[in-house]
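Morning!

This is the sequence you dropped in the shared folder:
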Amino acid sequence: MSSTSHTLDPHSLELMQQYHSLLPVYTKMSEIIPEKLKGFFEEAGIIVAAVEHRVKAEDSLAGKLELKGGKYKDLFDITDILGIRVITFYIDDVDKVASVLERLFEIDWENSVDKRKAHDIDSFGYLSLHYICRIPESSYHDPEHPELNKIRFEVQMRTVLQHAWANMNHDTGYKSGVEIPKEYLRNLSRLAGMLELADEQFSRIRTELTDYRRRVRALVASGNLDEAPLDGDSYRSYLELKPFAKINTRIAAVNQAEIQEVSLLPYLAIFKAMGFKTLGDVANLIRDYADAAYQIACYQIGLTDLDIIASSLGPQDLCIAFIIKNGGGKAGVKYLFDTLNGESEGNAMIAEMLVEQTADMPFMNQ
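The structure's back. Tokens below.
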């Protein structure tokens, strides 16, 4: 359908002609702006679900001009021909996105609107933050298309749940002006409340997790390891201190070997299986079983010409010493290797050999 299906006055027809002449500029902007935004979001560390764009179709614009074309002096007064939508995962990221836009573009504050301030029970899917923007010449300029810096465009910012709700409303005809039965209206309103609560809780949980990780990092940095629960976040922070470096260096010196760094994250599951609750328990393992781990390592590599060892050898031998010393026996050592390397019959043989070899080592009689 084209503008010929609408009844337009001469002024509106002139605006349509202007639209056709500027359409290449709008199209170019629809390509440039989303890419610029994605780049700035990445630099700012903001992860968004999507950046969408659309240029208003000819028929849609003609319909708008048919209704209220007289209010626009020229095409530059129409601010929604180019529309950008930024969809975030969290409520608080909407304001971060807005901050990026404020640095990138000139914001028409008079025509921008924060629909998040709405308090109607059915307003959840419409709580977008809308900015009317213009690209300043200092940010981007194309001598062939100077109109690019005059054109205003709209950027909508909303969360994934708000976006999904708005789309569902559109599909069901809700908010379309057509009255629907009260039972369906009530159910839609209840669902809107649930989604709004979920949106708020996702952001709250993320904030609380961020605060928790900050506290854990502070505990690790200050050395209060007994107060730091043993979990993925705390263990990663602890590994940054290279707690196993000393025992690995000591073991490597047996053969003057180099140490090849490998991931020590798999040992988190081992430490938990050993009953450790805090980082202090891991620190105590290193303190109390370093000599035992060294004795095991000497037996393993002392008569070899091995000149490279993995950084996992120290923690592995610490765990072997702890398991055997505390009565875990063959089953405990087999579990260690099954967890680290996958289950196999060979692990049982290695476990049995280690239990036999360590039986007469000094640490077993201490």
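Headline: The beta strands are 48-55, 82-88, 106-107, 113-114, 129-134, 152-159, 258-260, 308-310.

More detail when I'm at my desk.
O.
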